[in-house]
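Re: your question about AB hydrolase-1 domain-containing protein

S., sorry for the slow reply, the queue was backed up all week. Below is exactly what I fed in.
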Amino acid sequence: MTAWETARKLFFIPNPSRLWSLVSCLRLRAISGSNRKVAWFGNALLGTQGGHLTSDATGEQPGRPEIRVLRSNAPFIHITRTQKRPSPYADPARWSRNRFSRPLFTESLPPFLIPPAIFVGLLLSLWTWKCMWIIIMQNKLLYLSWLPPFSRSDKISEYESECRPVLWSEHTIRSLDNTKLALCQGYIPATPGHSSATPGQWWIDTSSITPAITGFESIRRCPHFPDETSYTVAALSYRGYWTSSGRATQSGIEADAQAFLMHVSERFSPCQIVLWGHSLGAAVAASALLERLSQNATHAREEDRAPIRGLIMEAPISNIKDMLISLYPQKWLPYRYLWPFSWNSWCNYTNLERLAALRSQKVDQSRGVPQTADCRVPPILILSPENDEVIPPTVAEQLEHQGKSLGLDVRRQNIRGAMHTEVPTKPEGKKALVEFIIRTTHDPPRG
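Result:
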């Protein structure tokens, strides 16, 4: 018979002995782990009968609940547990372990400082993460071979109708390490009726054929453009650019530039070369000129090489450090301080210093003793866009000042209203380019 049925029968028979039997039954069930509904029903039962029952704690055992029946106006059964939950501070060893297992962050900071601390920690983590990727991926960020989008799939035929009468063609050459390089070449014949002078050769560095073609077309339509001379424009795509293979690196690009100059000297001799570099390409062109003059200083027959008559530096950079500072002018940003971790060392200041040193010095390869000679450093034109959003205008001023202090033929032209890539499209920029080309290719070379 269940406890519920027993209680129902006892509810209608007010016998004290039966009530005491019910209390004993409830006590045994409480000891065995019965739920608290049994104790509640016992309280209700005793209250209904109005009986008064007292008893002392009997059968107390360690770890077992104790039942106490107390005397009151409303009799009830009160169940308590004599075994308490052990405190972690009772055992010193256990207290020590719990103490050091608490998070140090929440233990050492007041609650109102936790949100700002979390924000600062996330900001520092983001800065560290971005700095790491800037260092690792610096070649991808410096040599933007993926810009403009889809530039590697450009075709010359897409611009052929816009470029007439200039004839553009695509060629392939090999770098010094046998890397395949793409070359976009355009030819401008002399106007009929004029006696053609020595042909000129331009070198334009570009990542895509679009800047080379569109930039040169805007210059060709300039009214000051000479008609009596035929010109060949060659736009070199470094490794990793356009359809060239390989990946862009500083050593690889320097090798590409030397291979290109060798190709021009062999195929278009006799000719006069004018180098034209834009932004980072200005440092590439200056480095190529420096390497070419160094080779001429040790070459037995200098007349076998096509002379370089001029160097055009359009929106040039100074060095990697200044370029990072110009891109991140805020002093609180850590990215501008990453220049010591750069493995690219393009520097136009160093190029100008070395050009000035080669101007009056020639190395005798057989003896290794410096001897006086004339290496004929060509004139240099620096084109500075007034509204350049990438390179500060002060860079061109500093390069001009250093070049003149070193005794080089350096001239700077400020192009009003031009942005970083708009120099060839502005009338002032077209005029400066054409006048410089005419002066360097028609005037006799100066030492």
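Residues 246 and 328 are 30 Å apart (CA to CA). Residues 44-72, 363-367, 369-374 have pLDDT under 50 and may be disordered.

Happy to talk it through on Thursday.
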